[in-house]
Every structure is written in structure tokens, then in C-alpha cells.
Amino acid sequence: MQINLDILRKKVGGDSYRQDFSVAARPGMVLLDALHAIQEEQDPGFAFRYSCRGAICGSCAVKVNGVAALACKTQVAPLAEKGTILVEPLANLAVVKDLVCELTPFWEAYERVRPYLVRQQEEHDARLTWEDKMTAAQLDQLQRSYDCIKCAACFSDCPKRAADANFIGPAASVQLYKFFFDPRDHDHPWRVNFAGAPGGVGDCDSHANCVKVCPKDVRPLRAINYMRKEIGR
Question: Which residues, other chains included, contact 64 with Cβ-Cβ below 8 Å and sequence gap of 6+?
């Protein structure tokens, strides 16, 4: 069986173009295997990102048949049965070459939320625990937030981000959530103001694409909704 792929490519500093490839299928083959086969056997200049091959690092995220996904986690056989597999770079990001995107806007949004614990004093108040301040559902969402692997799949498929480059996007919102309800954090007033300001979680249009494409079931929209409830948005 041959796997047929239609890949959107781009030369460095040049225009985008489509190119068809065909690779031999093997049992258990994932899309990342197919991309490696193209690079090793047909075009050594073909560029894409990857690292762990185990759905941990998030580096290999691309769009597959129009939806963001991890190449290392995407089985090709079910897709190939339906026809040619369309592979494109992530959306909402500039393309450097082929499937490699410039991730600076993603990380800039991440940095905007101050993704770190802010303390005015180092001593720990044992009375202020997550269990005291957060509901069971909020705690569940907190654990999911720590599972985010920064793959940018949600950032890519967020219609609000496509329409408004000032919107921080789902992944950065998840990072904001991690500290928004944390009683140890002394920057809560700033986080509340940031969440409700232009570009913050109050601007989310609730398309829920982020929930659909997240490879780790982080549920960014739920995190956003918890914060919107707190800020009255």
C-alpha cells in the first residue's frame, strides 16, 4: 500500500507551493514516519520539526487534512483509506520553510501572562491551599493545565487568534489559569485585570477548536470559562 501526501511547502524567503509525495506504508506508521521517509528517500531538503517522537515535546504539530495534530501521534492508514493526506504548516504563524513555522508570536503571548509564581514573601502559609480555595472541578482543570506541551495546535486552529493578533490564544490562557486561582500567588489583581483587558480571556469567542485539537485533553476553553466567570465576562 502506498501513502499519498499533498504537502504545502515553502522555500526560505519564497512562495508557497504544493507537492505530491508517495511513500510505502508499513504497520503502525504515523505521519512523522512518512515525513522522515520523504526526507530520507526523496528530498533531503524537506524541512519539518520533531524531537521526542512520543507526543511529549509537541514539536511536530502540523495541520492534517485541515486540522492541527501531532505528526508523531497521527496514524496514516485510516487517513490514507479516504484518499490523499493533506499536510500543511500550522496556521496563525509565519512559515520559515516547508512545515517549519516561526513560533515567536506563540511564545510572546505566553510571556504576556507572567507564567510564573509572584511572591512578596517566601514563607509558606499552610492555611492557604488549593483545596481551600479551589473547587474539585477547578483542581481537575489545574492538573490538565500542567499537561500542556506547548505544541501550538490550539493557537493554530483558534479563529479568534486569526481575527485578532492581540488575543493571547488558548495555550497562554491555560498558563494564566495555572496562577489565576493559586493562593500562593500575590499578583492576582494584575491577573484579573489582564484577563479582562483587550486580548485577554474575555475576548475568547468560544469556538472550542482548542478543545478538539488538543493532544493532551487540556481543555483550554474550560480554563478560560472559569476565569471569565471570576471576572464577570
Answer: 31, 71, 74, 79, 85, 86, 87
Query: For every one of its 233 residues, what pLDDT tens digit does the chain have, with 9 covering 90 and above?
Result: 899 999 999 999 899 999 999 999 999 999 999 999 999 999 999 999 999 999 999 999 999 999 999 999 999 999 999 999 999 999 999 999 999 999 999 999 999 999 998 877 655 555 555 445 677 888 888 889 999 999 999 999 999 999 999 999 999 999 999 999 887 788 999 999 999 999 999 999 999 999 999 999 999 999 999 999 999 87
DSSP 166-233: TS--HHHHHHHHHHHS-TT-S-HHHHHHHHHSTTSGGG-----HHHHH-TT---HHHHHHHHHHHHT-
Selection from 48, 59, 49 nearest residue 9 by Cα: 48
Same structural domain, 128 and 168: yes
Q: What is the CA radius of gyration of the chain?
A: 20
Distance CA 113, CA 171 (A): 10
Tell me: do 116 and 81 sit in the same domain: no
Looking at the structure, do residues 137 and 82 belong to the same domain, yes or no? no
CATH number at residue 226: 1.10.1060.10
| Residue 59 and residue 166 in one domain | no
Q: Which three cell numbers stand for residue 34?
A: 512518512
> Does residue 89 share a domain with residue 7?
yes
Supply the pTM of this predicted model: 0.91
Domain containing 175 equals 104-231
